[in-house]
Amino acid sequence: MSEQQELQPVFSIEKIYVKDLSLEVPNAPQVYLEAAQPEIDMQLASEGKQIDEGFYEVALTVTVTAKLPEKTMFLCEVTEAGIFRIENVPVEDIEPILGVACPNILFPYARETVSNLVNRAGFPPVLLSPINFEALYMQQRAQQAEAGNA
Questions:
Q1: What's the family (predicted)?
Q2: Which of 9, 69, 84, 140 gets the most CB atoms within 10 Å of its CB?
């Protein structure tokens, strides 16, 4: 193997899996008799860490809450995770890969899991809109920079 082949950047998906799954319907069965449209709230969190030489785990947590004016219909939380192989990449590029590229890969899996879980709970599927993880990453970086200057 030539030296140039050895130094080629490597990025591959080793495994994608559901790391944690939770569904609560605190006001069942009465909530199924409600005709009102719930307000849907979605929260996202992403975390990446090195787990071995050249291997990283990224976990994307999606929390979806459906609320009526005076009660919660359901609370669904899914943590979709992946193991990614990242080698021969400059150190300064690792964080953006973990914060943007990996969540972009995981989000469709998390979205499908949320939709299926909510549907199995007896509610219409929740269809989550696409997320711009690059914009979220840049926003987090700006907030960290502001906090560092405070």
A1: Belongs to the SecB family.
A2: 84
